[in-house]
Structure formats: structure tokens, C-alpha cells
Task: structure prediction
Amino acid sequence: MHKGLSIYSATKCFNLRFSEILEKEYKDQIDVHCVLPASVDTNLNKDPSGLFAIDSNSFAKQSLSKVGYESTSNGHWKHCTQVYFSKWGPT
Result:
């Protein structure tokens, strides 16, 4: 297991719940869009491996195209596919 993974995972959970609460509290005033990505090539995560890894520009472009249509997404179709199939595997 990677060091710091617990903090990273906890932060993702916090962001999801916080976004859900903001969406309910300010539903008539702002659009809230929570993004839960998988592996993206960034300064923090150089050279991610795997079929579903993408570059940050592609991720940002697709993720922003969902604002106003979805309140929560994985940001990119590759990540949506990865999450879908991960639900079928062992936990």
C-alpha cells in the first residue's frame, strides 16, 4: 500500500459529501460539480500506467463539459468505464 493513500482516500470522500451538501444547500444559486477521477498524468502522478490513464488536458476538457449536466462524475469516459468495471471485481 502506498504511503499517504489513507489521506488521499479520505479527502475524496470528504469532497464528495461536501459537494452533496453544497448542492442541496445552494441548489437554486450555484451549480456544484464533484469530480472523482481515477489515474491522471499530473505533476503529482507522473507516468500513470494502465489502459484508463489519461493526460491532464484531456481530463480537464471532458470534466468541464459535464458542468451543469451532472452533479457528480468521474470526469472522463475512461474513468467512468474503469469505475463501472471495478464494481464487478473482487473487493
User: Anything to note?
Assistant: The beta strands are 34-35, 40-41, 54-55, 72-73. The longest strand covers residues 34-35. DSSP finds three helices and four strands in the chain.
